[in-house]
Amino acid sequence: MTNVKTRQLSVNGVKRTVDAPANETLLETLRRIGAVEVKCGCEKGDCGACAVLLDGEAVDSCLTLTGTVGERAITTVKGLGGAENPHPLQTAFADLGAAQCGYCTPGMIIATQSLLTNDTDTPDEADIRLALSGNLCRCTGYTKIYDAVLDGARAMREAEAAK
Amino acid sequence: MYANFDLLVPDELDQALTMIGGAKTAEDCAPLGGGTNLVVDMRASGKAPAALVSVARLPGLRGITIAEGTVTLGAATTVSDLLRDPRMLEVGAAMVDGSRVFAGQMVRNTATVAGNICCGSPAADLVPPLLALGASVTLRSAGGERTVPLDEYFTGYKTSVRRPDELLTSISWPVPAENSASRFYKLGRRKGDAITMVGVSVLVGMKDGVCSEVRIALGAVGPCVFRAKTAETVLKGKAPSPELVEQAARKAMEEAAPIDDVRATGAYRKQQVQVLVRRLLNQTIESLS
Question: Which residues in chain B are contacts of A60 at CB distance < 8 A?
Fold first, then answer.
C-alpha cells in the first residue's frame, strides 16, 4: 500500500475527513464515502460518467488523484439539486426524456453546468457538442440530451433574469 | 488504482525542483500534470514511478502572457484556458484548432499544455500547432534553466532531451508576423474523444508576394511529431502556386513514415498527409491573399 494520508475534502459544501492512499482517485474516494451518484464507467477519461465540478469546472474524477484536490470545492450532481429541489438542468433532462438508463446523466448534467457557467450561458448546438464530446450515452442517442441542455439553459437564464 | 507510488504535492516551484532533483531516471520520480494520460497509463500497466510530483497547481505556472512580441504559456495552462482566451485566435489560431478537437471537456479542463508535450505521444494534438508556430520550451532544474526549440526536443518515440531532474516550466513562440496564418487539422474517427490518425499543422507568412515563412508539422505519422522540412523548402521564398503546393504536399507525404495500427493503415495515413497538407496550405494561403 502506498502512503495513506488523512485529507480534508469539501463535498457539496460539507467538510469530509478521509484517509486516502496516494494512488486513490477521487472517483474511488467519493464512492467509498457514499457519494455513489458519481458513476464509474470507463475509468480512462473517455465516458464522462464520473464527472464532478472542482471549483465549478468539470473534471473526470477517475483521472484525478484525491491527493491533488486540496481545498477545491467538489460538487457532485447531488450538490446541484435533488428530487425535492431539482436544478433546472435536472428538471429539463427529466421533462424532455433525456435519460433512459440514467447512468450517464450525472456526468451529462455536470458537464452541462460547467459549459453554462464557464463558457457560455447561451450555447448553440456546436457549443453543446463540443462541451459534451467527453460524455458517452449508449441509450438515447444525443438529440434529447441536446434539447434538454438548450431547455435547461433557457430556464437558468430566465431564473437569473427574475432575480 | 493498481499501481503504487508516493504522491508529492509541493506548494512552490522550488520545492518541486528539489523533489524531482534527485531523479536519475523517470522511474524514480516524474512530474504529474493533469494526469489525463499518466493516470490512465498507470492503471493500464500497473506500473508507476516511485514518486510523482504534482505540478498542475503550482502558483505562477498557469497562464497566458503576450508581451514584447512573444506568447508565453505557463506549463500548467490547460487546454480549456487556450479556448477561453480570445487572443489565441490572433497569436496562434492553430492552437485553437488543436484545442477544439482535443479529447472531451473534462479532459480539456484538466490536461496541461506541458503534459501534452511531455507525454511524447506522436498523436499529441497541441504539438503540431506548436511546431508550426515555431515554439520553444523552457526546461528548469534546481541547477538552472535552458531553452530548447521544440523542433529539437523530441528524440524518438516518447523520448526527449528533458532530463529526469528537469521540469518543463513554460512554452513560448514569437507572435506571428503580420499577414501570416496558421491552421491545424485532426483526422480522427469522430470529432470528439478520438485519437488522431493524422494531424497536420501549417503556418504560412506572406511578404511581398512570396512565402516568407512556411512551417509544416505532421502528427501520428512517425515516432514523434516532426516538421516536414523538405516540403517547407518547396514553398519558402517563392510565390505560391497550385503546382508548388502540390509539390510540397507530395514531399510531406514522402517524409511521413507512419505505421499500421488499430486506427488506420500506414498507406492510408501517407495518402492523407498529402491531402491534408495540400488542403491546409491552400486554405492558409487563400486566407492571406
Answer: 36, 106-107, 110
Q: Where in chain A is the domain with CATH 3.10.20.30?
A: 4-79
Tell me the Cα Rg of chain B. Answer: 19
pLDDT given at position A163: 87
Domain range B64-174, CATH architecture: 2-Layer Sandwich (3.30)
Contact A68 B1 (CB under 8 A): no
**How wide is the angle at C-alpha A57 spanned by C-alphas B78 and A45, nearest 5°?**
70
The contacts of residue B66 (CB under 8 Å, 6+ apart) are B72, B87, B91, B175
Mutate to test the interface with A, among B9, B43, B105, B190 (most CBs of A within 10 A): B105
Q: Are B70 and B174 within 8 A, CB to CB?
A: yes
Amino acid at B20: I
Residue ranges covered by each domain of chain B:
6-54, 64-174, 180-288
Average pLDDT on B9-34 reads: 95
Instruction: Count Cβ atoms within 10 A of the Cβ of residue B12 and give its class: 0-12 exposed, 13-18 middle, 19 or more buried.
Output: exposed
pLDDT computed for residue A1 by the predictor: 43
Please report the pLDDT score of residue B194 as a whole number: 86
| B180-288 has the same fold as B64-174 | no
B71-78 mean pLDDT: 98
pLDDT one-digit tens code per residue, B275-289: 999 999 999 999 997
Which chain B residues contact residue A23 at CB under 8 A? 1, 3-5, 7, 42, 48
Domain A80-162: which CATH number of 1.10.150.120, 3.90.940.20, 3.30.1480.10, 1.10.10.10: 1.10.150.120
Which of A60, A109, A149 to mutate to probe the B interface, most B CBs <10 Å?
A60
Q: Which one, of B184, B87, B84, B82, lies nearest residue B133 by Cα?
A: B184
Residue of chain B minimizing CA distance to A48: B106
pLDDT at A2 over 70: no
Domain B180-288 in this protein, CATH class: alpha beta
Which of B 16-45 lie inside 8 A of A, CB atoms?
32, 34-36, 39-40, 42-44
- Domain spanning A4-79 has what CATH number? 3.10.20.30
